[in-house]
């Protein structure tokens, strides 16, 4: 009779232990989320989720000219004169290169003479038609010859116009690829020219900034070569997003630019995202 009593008491002790363990586990499940939400745990989660949009971002940027091009020869000929050198400034319309064009000038003079002859022939034939000395066909042929002479003169003038290369805009010569008395072929590069007064700030930004980085947005640009800060603003965004780097080209302008700036200078653009 003693053994059954001991066995029953042992069962009660075990059941009480299981109940105590379940109650402890239940309390932990209820208390743990509240402890995480308030205190050190919640503070750590909050710090991970809050973006640091108030911090400024620095990006590499460079100054590029708005207008630049490579002037090439449009004719085959010897270069007689180069009126500018690397680093020298010029104005729009200035003659930069002159070719030896004796044959082209002679072709223009010949075309003018042929045109004058054809014009006088037409005038005489019209008078003869009125006098019924020639037929209408002869007059029409002379008119066609006059039209041909006009076209030949235009061709000669077009060829002669290639004897001088004019500056397409005001700027500076960046590189000289030929020398005087050198023979140039059609399409041969002669000069690299650029507008050094109108410069843009070019930089690459994350494409996710498109939502708030719009034309007119202000930023700071520090030029490394001058160790100086300049106020700038965004003027336009690039035409497409690079899907691999998830970035886009952005162009800005310096609002307080001076004559000390040059194309090719680089530095750091500091952009502060909106709050």
What does this protein look like?
With 275 residues, the protein is an alpha+beta fold. It folds into two domains: 57-66 and 198-271, Beta Barrel (Elongation Factor Tu (Ef-tu), domain 3); 68-194, Beta Barrel (OB fold (Dihydrolipoamide Acetyltransferase, E2P)). It is built from four helices and 14 strands. The strands form three sheets. It has a six-stranded antiparallel β-barrel. A four-stranded antiparallel β-sheet has the order 2-9-7-4, with no helix packed on it. Strands 6-5-3-8 form a four-stranded antiparallel β-sheet, with no helix packed on it. Helix 3 (102-130) runs antiparallel to helix 4 (136-161). The radius of gyration is 42 Å and the shape is elongated. It starts with a helix and ends with a strand. The model is unreliable at 1-53 (pLDDT under 50).
